[in-house]
Amino acid sequence: MDGEERAYAPGTLQAKEGQPTIQQSEAEQSHRENERRLATLLSNLPGMAYRCKNDRDWTMEFVSDGCEALTGYKASDLVGIGARPYNSLIHPDDRDRIWNEVQESVSKRLPFRLTYRIVAADGRERSVWEQGVGVFSGTELTALEGFITDITDRTDAEAKLQAQNERLRRIIEHTDAGYFRIGTDGCYEDVNPAWLRMHGFANRE
After folding, report:
1. For residue 158, what are the CA distances in angstroms to 48, 120, 163, 191?
2. What is the spatial distance between Cα 129 and Cα 44, in angstroms, rounded to a whole number?
3. 70 exposed, middle or buried (CB, 10 Å; 0-12, 13-18, 19+)?
4. What is the CA radius of gyration of the chain?
5. How many whole angstroms separate alpha carbon 160 and alpha carbon 158?
6. φ and ψ at 192, to 5 degrees?
7. 190 forms bridges with which residues in the sheet?
8. What is the mean pLDDT of residues 109-127?
9. Mean pLDDT across the stretch 75-99?
10. Alpha helix (H) ranges present in the chain?
């Protein structure tokens, strides 16, 4: 030794100047393990986690690997120089509404929840649900972070049910058979024109 006395904090070991201590190595290992767990979690989510700028393009700074199943585009297609703006995937009829809803929420520092349509890489239209929040540094909005998932199957099922109900309503309105519906309180809730004619009523009033 050079005769100089050195004291190290308990639990640390520094063999040479500039080398990491045991505490630093353990912290780095813990950080890597946390990153691995987060990557595993994101890769198993049925959708796309993201971080983007609050601009009209929704410029992506990060997207999870789930973006490919959702949009048909790889993460590298949506992030980085020359990347495809996420806004270009949003259906043109939904873009202004989405922008306005997000701006209203972040101005109040509230989470936003959105449903809208995107056009995937294969040209097919998909319905998505998004939840996100503004990320602030003091008073400055620095980014948006959130999650987007595919709800096409649900919206298709709802549309089919609505179409079926509409067809049934038209049949009831134009049939010669009388139709009525009574509620649990014993009162009439609905009758069709044929029922009205059968009972001598001019209208539903």
Report:
1. 23, 21, 9, 25
2. 17
3. buried
4. 30
5. 5
6. -100, 170
7. 181
8. 97
9. 95
10. 22-43, 67-71, 75-78, 95-107, 152-174, 193-198
Looking up tokens 């048909």, which residue turns up?
72
pLDDT in tens, 142-189: 999 999 999 997 765 666 667 777 776 777 777 777 776 888 887 877
Are 120 and 126 in contact by the 8 Å Cβ rule? The answer is: yes
**Cβ burial, residue 118 (10 Å; 0-12/13-18/19+):** buried
Does the structure show a pLDDT above 80 at 35? no
The helix/strand/coil state of 67 is helix
Asked if pLDDT for residue 4 goes beyond 60, the answer is no
Which residue shows structure tokens 């520094």?
A: 14
Instruction: Please give the biggest Cα pair distance in the chain.
Output: 116
C-beta of residue 89 within 8 angstroms of C-beta of residue 120? yes
Q: Name the nearest CA neighbour of 21 among 12, 30, 29.
A: 12
Residue 99 in tokens:
């922008």
Closest CA to 150 of 54, 51, 56, 45: 45
Q: How far apart are CA 198 and CA 132, in angstroms?
A: 56
Alpha carbons 37 and 120: distance in angstroms, whole number = 29
SS3 assignment, position 111: coil
